[in-house]
Specification:
heterodimer; A: alpha/beta; Rossmann fold; six-stranded mixed beta sheet; three-stranded antiparallel beta sheet; B: mainly alpha
Amino acid sequence: MIHVENLVKTFGEVKAVDGVSFDVPAGEIFAFLGPNGAGKTTTIQMLTTLLAPTSGTITIDGLDPRRTPHDVRRRFGIVFQDPSLDGELTAYENMELHGVLYHVPRRVRGERIERLMKVFELWERRDTVVKQFSGGMKRRLEIARGLLHTPKILFLDEPTLGLDPQSRNQLWTHVKHLNETEQVTVFLTTHYMDEADRVAQRIAIIDHGHIVAQGTSQELKVQTGTDSLEAAFLKLTGSTIRDESADVSGDQMRQMAKMWSNRR
Amino acid sequence: MSVVYILWLRELKRYSRSRAMIVASLGQPLLYLLVLGFGLGPVFQQAGRGSYLQFVAPGVVGMSVLFSSIFSGIGLLWDRQFGFLKETLVAPVPRLQIMTGRTLGGATTAMIQGLLVLTVCLIAGFRPSHPGLLPLAVLFMALVSIVFAALGTAIGSTLQNMQGFQLIMNFLVMPIFFLSGALFPLTNLPTALAVITRLDPLTYGIDGLRGALIGSSHFAVATNLSVLGVVAALFLGLGAYSFSKIQI
């Protein structure tokens, strides 16, 4: 379903992704793990047509995202690492807007929105403006939205970041269910090793833009001679803490934006 | 088509939900209208130019249309900041449709804003000389809205942060307003100023509004309409181009 060969992305001097290759067969749940700044999000951005690779090939369901971006976009759903909802619209309006953007036919749109919002326990709050939602509710809404157009592939970029154990559990249960009943291929990144261990059939570990190991959780443990995925991960990527290059202007903007929205 | 519509509708919903902001945004035009209208009124009258309130009201309407349309486009910055831009850019729809929906939505809210300010002007004592020409005034508001919503989109697509926003505000938006003849007549200007005012697209919008609302204008209606039409087409092209180049 996803085929990546020798993928490279450089930003100026920095090689964010350096010769990455992997395959995700249809119907698999594939976890992409790595420390901060390892190249996970950059890879996802290239897979989802948001970023053009410097070199290498990507095939999504037999298509090249660079040549046929629209056809590729129709095939996947994505839950971004950062929020991407419109806070001024209600939960239902966010869902509906997504449905229109993804050409979900009007006759099935309402019914699907209702079903998904019920699954993620948001239906009661459908007419609430999203900026009043808690972090967990926003996350759930994003995931529900990503599933609205019944994608073949679901990209989840750290979907459980900042969620309580209940919501995390609910999310993964639903993702597994979706994978089993509708054969949705799932490509996920997470920092929680227990989640990857529990959910993913195969795992790739990326560090400094390279894939340092891939296989089932069992294979990784055997390969590193450890007894948990977390220990295997630390053995493969070292235990020094990584700092993501601080995006100063981004931080300032966030503050300004906050000031503005408070003033309203 | 439904994509354009839903994004247009989004702008309207966002606008109608920011009631406090709508009220706040009426403050500045009102200040200009009352302080300048009544403050400069006597001087203007002595110069044999008639009522300054009558003269400045179309300028104030044009100003509010300018501000709200250009800010609607720059609102892209917020969408980028709050992440919603990604949601639209990753969708399987041509960017041109996204840009069109947004820009038309922004232009529509700017027109509503202009009509609100016009209403405020009427309450403050402004009287249009030919009420029958009101549709023409609305047409000019629409053109000004489109011109500057498209310009705002072009700017919003290239700006990365709020510092840039301040720069645009001080070095583009304010000059566009002050050099448009919103506050002063275009006759007998020093040559340099006369040239610059003629390069400002808002000049033709405000002159058109003045023609429609108080029956006196510097240029012919046809001139105003065609200049605005050409600039609108140009800026829409520019906006579409910049929007197509956005990288997340």
